[in-house]
Structure formats: C-alpha cells, structure tokens
UniProtKB/TrEMBL annotation, chain A:
It is found in: Cell membrane; Membrane. It is a multi-pass membrane protein. It catalyses: 4 Fe(II)-[cytochrome c] + O2 + 8 H(+)(in) = 4 Fe(III)-[cytochrome c] + 2 H2O + 4 H(+)(out). This is Cytochrome c oxidase subunit 1.
From TrEMBL, chain B:
Keywords: Copper, Membrane, Signal-anchor, Transmembrane, Transmembrane helix. Its main location: membrane. PANTHER family: CYTOCHROME C OXIDASE ASSEMBLY PROTEIN COX11, MITOCHONDRIAL-RELATED, CYTOCHROME C OXIDASE ASSEMBLY PROTEIN COX11-RELATED. The chain crosses the membrane at residues 17-38. This is Cytochrome c oxidase assembly protein CtaG. It is a single-pass type II membrane protein. It is found in: Cell inner membrane. Exerts its effect at some terminal stage of cytochrome c oxidase synthesis, probably by being involved in the insertion of the copper B into subunit I. Belongs to the COX11/CtaG family. InterPro entries: CtaG/Cox11_dom_sf, Cyt_c_oxidase_assmbl_CtaG. It comes from Alloalcanivorax gelatiniphagus.
Amino acid sequence: MSTAATAHDDHHHHAPTGLKRWLFSTNHKDIGTLYLWFSFAMFMVGGLLAMVIRTELLEPGMQFVDPEFFNQLTTLHGLAMVFGAVMPGFVGLANWMIPLMIGAPDMALPRMNNWSFWILPFAFLILLSSMFMSAFGAGHPSAPNFGWTFYAPLSTEYGPASTDLFILSVHMMGISSIMGAINVIVTVFNLRAPGMTLMKMPLFVWTWLITAFLLIAVMPVLAGAVTMMLTDRHFGTSFFSAAGGGDPVLFQHVFWFFGHPEVYIMILPAFGIVSAIIPTFARKQLFGYASMVYATASIALLSFVVWAHHMFTVGMPLAGTLFFMYMTMLISVPTGVKVFNWVATMWRGSLTFELPMKWAIAFVILFTCGGLSGLMLAITPVDFQYHDTYFVVAHFHYVLVSGAVFTMFAAAYYWLPKWSGVMPNKLLGELHFWSSLISVNLLFFPMHFVGLAGMPRRYADYALQFADYNFWISIGGFWFGLSQLLFLAVCVLCALKKGEKAPAKPWEGAEGLEWEVPSPAPFHTFETPPVVK
Amino acid sequence: MSQESLEHRNKRTLRKLLIWALAMFGFAFAMVPFYNVICDITGLNGKTSSTASTEGPSRTVEDRTVTVEFITQRGKGVNGDFMSATRRVKVHPGEITLVNFYASNPKSSDIVTQSIPSVTPGEAARYLHKTQCFCFDQQTLGAGERKEMPMIFYLDPELPPHITTLTLSYTIFDVTDRVAATKNTVINNNAVAR
C-alpha cells in the first residue's frame, strides 16, 4: 500500500468493515459490543457446565459423570462465570456507557482497550481446552479440578498438569482486567466533558471508577498468588508447601485478600446500573446521590479488611475472628444505605414497570435476600455450621445471579435501544423476565434448606434425605438455563434491527448525556464535548 | 486545552496506575514475610519455634496440670509408620517432658524426611518450648529403617490460664527430591565456579 493511501486513511477515520472492524477496533462501542457478546457466550458455557452439574445432582447416587469430572465442572463453571461472564460483562457496559455518560468521544486509551479485550478469548480458549487434554494423552485428570478458589496444596502439589494452563490463563485474564480498569480511570479523570464535575457523574460511572481502583489493587495480588503457585510447582520454592517451610494457610490469606474485593468488583457496577434505572422509571431524582457515592467508597474500603471471614474455620486467634466478624457486619451499613436509597427513590414516584425496571426491582429484593444470608454467614459460630455447605452456594448465587447477572439484564433492556436502535422485543422480554425470576428462586432458594441441613458443596453425590430438594433445584436449574435462550433471541433480534424503532430517548423519565445522541448511537459521538450545566 | 496536553495527561495517569499495579504485585510477595511476622506474634498458624530453646523453665507450676495431645500425619509420598509413643501426657507448666516419636521407611532406598509441627490453639504455640526435636533438622531414614526420634519440651509457666489442653501435630514429609535438587544446584554451581 502506498504512503499516500495510508495518509488518506489516517485523515478520514472511516470505519473498517468485516472481520477487521472487530479485530482491529479501537472504537469503544465496538469493543463494548465484543465484550458483551463474549460475556454472554461465557455465560452460556458456564451455564452449560452448570447444567451437567445439575443433571448429575438430579438424583442421589452416581449417574452421568464420575466425581473427578464433576470437580472439573465445578471449577470451570466458577472460573467461566466469574472471570468470563460477570467481569467482562461489566467491562463491556463500561466501554459502551462511560464515554457516552461523561460526554467523551471514546475511551482514553483505545489501543489498550483493543488489547484488553482480545487477550480474553485466548485466555478462555486455553482454560477451557484443558478439558480435552486427556483425550490427547496429556495428563489425567484433564482440567483443573480444585475449585475456582484453587487452594494450596490441592492445586500446587496435587493439581493436574493442566494447572499450568490455568495459571497462564488467570494471568491473561488479570492483565486484561487491569488494563480495562486503567482505561476506565484515565477516561473518567481526563475525558469528562466541561462542567461534568465528579459529583455530577452518573452513579454507574462512579461505581465503575471505584471498581476500577479495586481491580488495580487486587488483580495483581491474584497474579502474585498464581505466580507463587507456578514457582512452587516448578522452580523449587515453598511459598505454600509446609515441607519446605511454607504455609498452605498463607495461600488462603493471599487469595482472599484478592477474593473479597473481587466480590465487590462484581457487584458495585450493578449498584450503579440500578441507580440509573430506578430513578428513570420512578420519574424522580435518585434519593441521596452523595450518600450513594460515599456508601460505594466505604464498601470498597471495607472490602480490604474482611477477607478472613472466608476462613473462620481455618482457625485464627479470637481477636482476629471478632475483628473480621464485626468488619463484615459493618459492610451491611453502607449496603443498607443503598437499598434504602433505592426504595426511597421509588417512594411516591410515578412508577411504571417496563422491563429494565422489573429486573431492577427484582435485583433489589433478591440481592437483599443474598445480603441477609451473607450477614448470617458473617457470624463466626454460625459460620462454623454453614461453612462449605449449600447455604454458602445459595448465598453467593443470590448475590451474583439474581444480583449481578440480573442487573446486566436490566442494563441490556435499558440500553439496547441506544445500542441497536430498536426496542427489545416486549413479549420475549416479559417471558424472559418472569421465567428467569421464578426459576432462579426455584433453583437457589431450596439450596438454603439443604445447606442448613448439612449438605456439603462441591460433592458429586449427596445423602438420600436431600433428594427431593435437589430434584427441584435441578428442575429450576434447567428452567433458568433454557430461559436464557429467550434473552439470546431478544439480543439477536436487536442485532438484526428487527423491532420497533427506538427514539433517541426511549424512556420518558431517563436523564443523562447518553440519551442526547441518536439511537442507535453513531460510530463517533461527542467529538465536540457537550457542555454540562 | 490542546490535544497534545490531553495525550500527555493520559500517559501520566496511565504511568501512575501501572506503577500502582506493579506495586500491588510486589505487595502479594511482601505478604509472605509479613504473614510470617504476624504468625510469630499471634501464633496464627500454630507453628512452634524451629530452633531449640536454650533456656530451661524458670519454675514449675505444680498446682496446674495441662494435657498435651500428640497427632501424627503422613504427607504426600510417605508410606511408612509415623507415630508417637503416647497419645497424650499430663504435664505441669515448666515440667520437662520427653516424648518419643517413631518413623519407619519400608522403601528399598533412603529417604530424607522433614516433620512440620503445628499447635492448636495457635496462641499456645509460643508457650511450647522444645529443647530437642527431630523437627529441627531433616531426618534421613535408611532403607527399611525404623527410627526412634525423641522430642523434649516444656510448657512456659506463663501459659494463659484458659488453655487446659493443647494439641501438637506433626506432619512428616518426604523431602528427598527437594534435597537432591538443592544438592544438584550446589554441585552445578561449584562446577561453574571451577
């Protein structure tokens, strides 16, 4: 190609087409779309693994898979959902919405943005392909089988050969999310439109800004943990090996120092989404904007001093136990502030219940249920009974599925008109909502009961007395899994522009810069920054 | 503002954040020594001192009896016996007590073992003083050998009064490969030096 042609390209910024458009994209909207589709694909993969888990647990006894494969299923399900579905899903929303919300033309570091997305599919290719390793004669068992928390020495001394693939892929996921987080911070700090002061930013931007700081603080710690694992496995160090003078319990401290802020990384952006949707459909200003910002920041700060509540049964001095118990319970104060603010926003509002609002209200109620069981788990003596039972599984699925995932659905229904230019199909949407709402509760609510009765998590089999509950849990699981195909249909219809054409502001009560650009949002927006009064 | 200065500002913010990310990566490794210090102070992981206590007890508290229980476990790769001569002893704080441990190696080759102690409750760890222990050094077990390994300890007279029972657990590990690896490195290094 001649130099003249290259110069020409540089001057006109016309959008490349076909595969190149996506591979080389530096456009925040295209990268956001890639993230969102990737996240949905991983949600489906992780969901498929969960379906196999629930098939095995449909009846007591061993029917379909052997326990060793079951362990690989639970491990990969957790990893795919946490690092593949929830985190990239929120990064996708951040990519799409943050520049639109703060009046920026794009993300601040577009090339890095491209890179942070494109290493993700390869990270998951490496991780998921390990499932097929033994088919090629390389190692048995195939995939990592030590749970998504990969406790040492189970993962270091007893881990399968594919543990090294796992380490590599976790490194790549970590690099991807650190770069994504850096991009968000640089964008928010440097690219806000004139007049968009920090305390005027939409809460979704605020919660993402705080999330980004959490990511930069803890993803490197996770990288450190897997690096120590790698050197323990191959280079003769003994960070976690008692025989060499290390300590396996250290692993749990390092892991949960990452792991607890990580759970807020997966929920803070959700708070931002709900804080955008509820005021729109209540036709009122968000109640207590400033308190929302401070509550988010407090939750983020507190997340660094509660990690050992995951380890009460590991043993620690009484003073430590009490400290971590009180700190954990303290988190319910800022979280409570948020829930009360959402309820107060709805109080005496002119409520309508369009699809995004339905999901948002379901989130507020079900997330509060999950928070309440979290509060129960925070009580140390009680935790000794609940630890590693299905009660814990019920707790974190309530906050992650009917919490984080529900808000992503809410966000999708809320912003799909802006992304695609057409309104999401109402009938399919309603079916998707009600079907998911009922099935998610059938799926996760009975888990509280079997957990309290003592059914341990991560086992391929269970005692006979849990059979009835598990049958219904599995039915709920299949039902919830199938319901998500409705969402796929909604998204595909929108992508094909099939549906009612969306106006620039499809929701009557919506406020914010994102509604001032046409629907679908043009390839380039806010090249001249808007002025915020 | 000009385009140039924005790019400059972006790069500066990027640099700061990258440095922070790298610092947090370092922090993960800094947690290791930090954790060890915390463990020494609080007995978090129940580790007892890995060196022999050189001072004897200051006094014996005759009117207090504490039960000390012993647990033995075999780590990965050890398939011989590993046990203590007695499951529990009742001692007065300050009383010097000897307990024998036995380990055997049914394999046809020598193995090098390392035993790792741990005390429950963890806060009692620093009140358990050992004047002699097989865990201070690596123990070589010859092929087919059964070895008697003494451990001499006393409890600190200052042991907090609410502790009436403490459990001392030993896990024995086969470290033959580790030792071989270190030796090879030393030999290789020497070869390079020459």
